[in-house]
Write a structure and sequence with these properties.
By secondary structure, the protein is mainly beta. It is about 5% helix and about 55% strand. The chain is built from six helices and 49 strands. It starts with 5 loop residues before the first strand and ends with a strand.
Length: about 800
Amino acid sequence: MGRLVFLMVWLAPVLGAAQEPVLVTGRVIDGSTDVPIANVRIEFDEDSTNTNANGQFSLVVTTYGATLRFVAPGYLDTTVSVESTDLEVRLFRNTFAETVEVVSEVSPTLERPSATPIASTEIFAVAGAIDNVFRTLDTLPGVASTDDFGSRLSVRGGTPDQNLTVMDGVEVHNPYRLFGIASAFNPETIESFELTAGGFGVQYGDRLSSLLVVNNRVGERQFQGAAAVSVTDGNVVVEGATPGPGEGAWLLSARRTYYDLVAGRLQDQDFPSFADVQLQAGWEVGRGHRLTLLGLRSREDADLDIDGNRTGERAILGSDARNDLVSARFDAVLGTRGTSRTIVSSYRNVESLDFDGSFRAEARRSNAPNDDDAFGLSDIAFERAVTVRDISVRQELNLQVAPTHLLSAGAELHRLETGVRLSITGDRNDTAANGSSVQGGAGLPDLLDSSLAGTRGAVWIQDTYVPGPDVSLEPGLRLDWSTANGRATLSPRVAASAPLAWGTRLRVAAGLFTQSPGYEKLVQSDYFVDLSDARALGLRHERATHLVLGIERALASAIMLRVEGYYKWFTDSLVGRLETETERLQRVAQYDFPEELQDSVPTAPLITSNPTNDASGLAYGFDAYAAHTNAAAPLTGWVSYAWGRAERESYGRRYAFEYDRRHAFNAVGRYRLTDRWDLAATARVASGFPYTSPTDLRVAAVEDDRGRLVPETDQIGNLVYTVDYGDVGNLNSGRLPIYARVDLRATYRPSGPTGRWSLYIEVINLLGRDNPIELEPRLKHDPDGDRPRLSEVPSQGLPRIPTFGLRVRF
C-alpha cells in the first residue's frame, strides 16, 4: 500500500512450559504516536479476533510458541510467536502519499493533503463506473475525464501523459483496455488504489501531475472464487493456499470480452476485444519475510472491414495491443527497526493501429444545392505503432532511527527501449487546429520510424518526523536523471500536518516535480513530438512546482468534510515548435492559387512535431468535498465541488489549457431501499472545456499531377470550401457548452447483503443529453450566398446506454 509496516514486540520472560491452553492479552499501538489502533485482526489457526477501540485484544492459544498473525489495512502482515501472556505490539507505518485513495477497508490516517478514502466495493456500486476505477475517480474534486469513452484523466490542470500509474511498485505504461473503455485493473483483485492529486512524496517521480498507486491484494488461503459479467467483459477470480513451506497464497484472475464472440460470428468480423490473465503467488519465507511473484498477459485486437452508408464509403480497421508484465518482490523486516522492499520487473507494451477509409467530409463541401454534387470523399489512411520495453529495479528501505523519526530511502533504475512508427498516406485532418495533434495534424511527418533507448533512474531520501501524536513533518529530496536527454534534476519536497481548533486539521505539501522526455509518456498524450534527437536538441526535463493546502474535519467516524486549495507552476513544458521561416516558405510555395484566392492559402507558421521546451503555465483552484462512507447506513456517498483555472503560455501568447474546467459538481449516492434492493445515482454538472473555434472558411486545396496544391472543385466545377482555424493566436479561443449527465443503477441481491449473488441494471446518461465533448463543424448549402454555411454540432458524448452486471462468489 505504499506504507512502511514493521512489527516490534517486547516479550516478557517465559514463566513456564505450560502445555494447557493459554490466554494471551495485549495491546496494539502506533509506534510513532502511541495511539491505540482499532480493528487490527489477530489470527490463530481457525480462530481470530479484532482489537477494540483501545487497541486491546485477548485470544486463547493452544500452547506457548503458537503463532499469531497481525493484519491491519496499510500494514505488512506479520506473524509473532507467543512467548508471553502479555504482548505490546507497536505498528509503524510510512505516511508519505498525498492521495485520493480507494481502499477495501477503513483507511489509516494519511498525513498529506487530499486523502480521500473510498471503499473498493464502491467501484462496483457507483452508477456509471462500469467496474472501472478511472470512472469512479473522475467523480472526485479536481479530477476530470478527458472524454466520455476513454479513461484518461486530467488532474488539477495536468495532461494525461503527466499521470504516473504504478502497480505493485512497477510502472504500468498502458493502464487501459479496449481503447480506454475498460480499466486494466480488476477491483476484485486489488487491495487499494491511491490517486495522488499533487504534492506527493519523493518515493515517486518522473511525472508532473498525479500518481496512481495500485496494490494487488494477497490471496486468501482458503480456496474460493468469484465471477462477474458486465457490459464490457466477463471475469473469473480464484484463490487458495500456495504449496511449499511457510504460509502463502495465490490469486488468479482472467477477463475477456464476450460480445465479439457472438457479434463477430454474425457479422464475420473481428470486433475490438481484449483478454488478460493475471497470476500472483506469495510465500512467507521466514518471520517477517515475504516473496511475491506476479505475471500479467494481456491481448487486444480488432480486424474490421465495414461499408459506409453512402456510395464509396468504407473503413478498414486493424489494431493489436500486447501487455506483458513479470515481476518479483521481496519484503523483509530488518530487525525491530527497519523494512526493505526489492522489486525486479520486466514490462512490455506494444500497440499498433492501422486505418484505411473513405468518408464524406462534412466539413468540406462546395455550395452546390445537391449534396451528391457538393460533397466528395475524404481518404483517411495511416499506420501507427508504439513500443515500450521497460526492465526495472526498485529498492526501498525504511528505518525507525528514533521514536519520532522514520527515515525512508530508495533507488530505482529503468532500462527503456521505446519506439514509434508512423505513416500517413491519406488526407490530413482539417479540424486539427494544432498541427502536432495525434488526430492527423498537418504538422505530423508523412513517415517516421524513431527509436529511443536509454536509462532512467532516481534516488531519494525522506524523514517522517512525528514530534507529537497530532503533528508530523515530512521533508524529502529526490534526484532524477535520464540518458535520453543527458540531464539530471534535484527535487526537494515537504509535507506537514497539524491540528487546529474545533476538531479540524491542517495539511500542507509543497515541492518540485520533473518529467523526462520519453515515448512511454507520449502513449497517453494528445500531441506527438519527435524525440529522435532529444539529446542533440538539448531538451530539458519538464518541471512543475506544487503547493497544496487543505483543512479537513471529521464530523463522525464516517462523515468527513474537506476544503483544499492548490497552485501549480509549469516550466520547460514540451510543445511542438512553430515552423521556421524557411519551412514556412517551402510549404507556402507548394500552393498554386490564383491571386483572388490567395486569402485561402494558410501562410501563418504551423505547429510542427519538432520538440522544444518553450512552454510554461499555471493551474490553481480549490476543492470542497463531503463524504458519508458508513456502509451500514441506508444512504452513503459523496458530493464535491471544484473551481479551477489552468493556463498555458506558448507561441507568444497565454491561453486556456485544453482541460481547463472552471466549475465542476459531482454527487454520488447509494440508497438501500430494502435488504435486497439498492438504488445508486451519479450526477455531474461541469463547465465545458476550451476548444479552438473556427474563424472562417477557405478554399480547400488538392494535389494535382504536378505535385502542386491547387483549388479543389466539385464534379460540376464549383469551389470546395473547408474550415479555417486561423493561426496559433486562435488556439482554445472558444468554450464548449456545459456538460451534464445523470447515471442510475438498481442492484438486486436475492439473499441480502451477505449473499453470494448480486445483479444490477443501469442506464448511463439517463436523460439522453447530447453532451458536447467536441463541436464538429458542418457545412450546409447556403441559398443566399456563394459559400456554404458553417455550423457546429456536439459529438463524442455518450448516448443513453442501458447496461447490466452480474456477480457471484463461490
